[in-house]
Amino acid sequence: MSGPEGEVHILDNISMTVHEGTSVAIVGASGSGKTTLLGLLAGLDLPSQGRITLAGSELGRMDEEQRAQLRAREVGFVFQSFHLLPALTAAENVALPLELAGREEPARVQEVLQSVGLGHRARHYPRQLSGGEQQRVALARAFVTRPRILFADEPTGSLDQATGQQVSDLLFALNAEAGTTLVLVTHDLRLAQRCQHVLRIDNGRLQAEPAQAPA
Prior knowledge:
This protein is of the alpha/beta class. Helix content is about 35%, strand content about 20%. The protein has a single domain (about 1-210), classed as P-loop containing nucleotide triphosphate hydrolases (Rossmann fold, 3-Layer(aba) Sandwich). It is built from seven helices and ten strands. The strands form three sheets. It has a six-stranded mixed beta sheet with strand order 6-7-8-3-9-10. Strands 1-2 form a two-stranded antiparallel ribbon. A two-stranded antiparallel sheet has the order 4-5. It is globular. Residues about 1-5 have low confidence and may be disordered.
């Protein structure tokens, strides 16, 4: 990556494969490259060298519109800061990925809102919801298109411990129910250890760690 002081190396000789239906956590210190790696895996950015294949498609051979279409078909996202649109209700936020794909499925929207315990809050706006409720709406939005892979960037980072536990329980329950591949970035080692595989980035290099159930 190029910057005002010249070329900056963020990730160094990383090679990884995420098998369909598995869960992978990426951990590491702030600034280690975790979020950069997640963005590359999702096709939000392209590497200066190397090759990335997502859902069978090589991202470097696609233009931005093609990558966006691939993400719309195959990928769901959950972010630390929720990224809900304030002018839309919970149901309208959840419906957005379907609408962008040219689909109108109000029953599916209600189904996923019910699955995160917010069917009764469908007409509420983000400002009327707590942080935990907003993240549950974000989870519903991520799963509404039945994505093959879900990328989550610090999904519990803005929540208190109890609320974060509730959201992570929902995340893994929905993931298991849908059989979705899960790749998440987190500082929370307890959350990471719920995944089947844990990868640590240190100074741009990737190494595997044994995943173990939290005490």
